[in-house]
Automatic annotation (TrEMBL):
Keyword Nucleus: no
Glycosyl hydrolase family 32 C-terminal domain location: 675-830
Name of this protein: Glycosyl hydrolase family 32
Record key words, sorted: Glycosidase, Hydrolase, Signal
Record carries keyword Methyltransferase: no
Similarity annotation: Belongs to the glycosyl hydrolase 32 family.
Cellular component aspect of the GO annotation: cytoplasm
GO molecular function: sucrose alpha-glucosidase activity
Amino acid sequence: MATVCALSAAPLAPQAVAADTPPYTETYRPQFHFTPEKNWMNDPNGLVYFKGEYHLFYQYNPNGNSWGDMSWGHAVSKDLVHWTELPLALSHDDEEMVFSGSAVVDWNNTTGFGTTKNPPMVAIYTSFNKATGIQAQSLAYSTDRGRTWTKYQGNPVIDIGSREFRDPKVQWYEPTKSWLMTVSLSTEHKVQFYSSKNLKDWDLLSEFGPAGATGGVWECPDLFPLAVDGDENNIKWVLVVNINPGGIAGGSAAQYFVGDFDGTKFTAEDKGTYTPPSGTVVQDFESTDFGTWTTTGTAFGAGPAAGALAGQGAVEGFDGKGLANSFHSGDGTTGTLTSPEFTVDSSYLNFKVGGGRHPHEAGTVMEQGPPPAGTVLADFEGGSYGDWTKTGDAFGSAPATGTLPNQQEVSGFLGSGLVNTYLNGDSTTGTLTSPEFTIDKNHINFLIGGGNHPVGSANPTALELLVDGQVVRSATGKDAEALNWASWDVSDLAGKKAQLRIVDDNTGGWGHLNVDHIMLSDTKARPVSQETSVNLIVDGEVVRSATGSNSETLDWASFDLRPYAGKKARIQVVDMNTAGWGHILADRFTAADAPAKSVVQRADWADYGKDYYAAVSWENAPGGKRYMVGWMNNWDYSGAIPTSPWRGAQSAPREMALRTIDGRVRLTSKPVASLESLREKSPATASGVTVKSTTKPLIGPAARGKALDIEATFSLKDAERFGLKVRTGADGEETVIGYDTTTQELYVDRTRSGAVDFNSTFPGVQRAPLQARNGKVKLRILVDWSSVEVFGGSGEAVITDQIFPDPTSQGVEVFAENGSVKLDGARVWHLDSYRD
């Protein structure tokens, strides 16, 4: 459980919901995924089965649609599909917030909270102390099937004085007749195991970690046994560790380890040391200078570094004695390091990369040119706010002339004035509102910097566009003082009267905003790059890019060069960032026939999509089944998704198994069988269809829909890529679910899936390794009003992604690229709402 701010572009305001919209019919409301009627939800908590009911508790803000006042919401189901929302279970109070945790049935009344005849349900949760920030483990109990709860008077039951100690998962461990707790030391990338006879007195057994992916905090651990390939004589243990950021698709994700648990400690299976593919070294930075590579700026110095530079933490993971390091004179310097032009004649370029996580963004420029032509609405010159009206105390009597006292250096504004709400520090708040104007051009361009607190979060720092008093566009900063161009496409608002409002409602860190030079223009302003990246440039365009993970440890990355065979290319290492982690590390550029894999790619993931996090499993499920559910969102943009009056959904619950796949034991998932109870009568079907280098409707009108369950099997022919497109509609709107034979990967492309521009990390392609079996690829696809979940093969490749398509986009199409594929068979069921 964490508060993580996302890099934000220009968040769209949540679609204003008409006051008369009945609950659960809103534009993006999931129909077969659990959502609360209103307000913010994140991690699933307290998953336990008791007296015929599956309990789902969850991180919940009873007071709003953004993270805050964390409490436990509550829902129950008899089948993991039909959910009933119940009253708030565990509430925040003046002293604490109730962070994530688990629940058990204390059958033997070891706690004394109930009786053996009426055993208590006990919740074990992380208490976040509001005064100290300390995270400790606490208890609450219920003797009426979880309907009402009492916090234990002796709380907390484990307090190690840490601010990063959370998310206890407790189970009964029969061999020692004791309770077993799995809990995370988040910033140390460790999991601890504790034992207790009564849930109150705990002894530390052991620790696991760091291991696998460690590019973010470790949260919401889970530990459970499963039979391998159904063989009850071959039991392995699975340790799930959710990580944020640093997941396989960027941002938050669910990692797992397979191994053994002996009652005291968990031992992960040894995967051996990694050896990257051999190849021809292009540049290894072992000379005293950069040779034929050229630099601009000062960030890279005159030649390779021998490791860490002055003021830098220990640099590790580079090969030999030298590397490219742009930390010369600290993060404040910028520059580029560029290879000579070469002809692409190998399949892959492998290299090591480290440093800051500031990805290349398409459409950025290397240096700020003059603003595009247009009408200036406000440039904040001339020493006054003119006819703008202000409230509060953040704006002062006149625009700022630059950096304010105790503020880091403000840059990137034009002229001598700007709006800067750091007046007397972050604690001041207020609004500044423009007079009315008419939108008569296609874009509104503006310079913006300061805090990242988007509209929809509890206390925004944002520039808003108002039409008829409603917020129709908004933008926030990136927790950096430098202003940069941002732009809204307002062509759909032509002729409308509008106002601009600058809001600073935040008194915490980065609780201010910098704004300048707001203008109407028919040309979109191009932001200046703030990347720290390694780029491949072909025909003047960046066609491949990699960035660091805010770590001084270098790791392998790889560019697929095959589409550019025979073309002229350059490698460019770029540091355009002057803020925290504003540097890049690179080493050992190698031309090879196969891709190198990073630690993150070599780790194991329960789901390869962007939107499956805090995944945990139900204790005590009937028949020894292991069902798992995750929060269907990502901390990179969770506060900005365009849903209202709720924000956050849970994934479809999944039945988990361990299977041997390609010689390795893998955790697999499939949708819980009871989901099929929502299928409407008979499916629409297709069989024996060959598709060649085209896209065409699958079946026709009968397959169209917003909530679907699709099963499809393809036989490989010579197509490079093939699959299905769902939620297709006007203007090329589509969510592509494909298989890439050239990389042997399942993928979901949501670049054109609908609303994608509320955050720069949202659009993109997610990929999961998947081998065809006997020349066939099997897919199971769950489509809801704002999500897709794709299960490939035997469930070893799963991709969960949110999408926000237009309600009229309901098409389903089959496609093949660069060749043919045979669709052996497809069945498409329409799914009803679980509330029907």
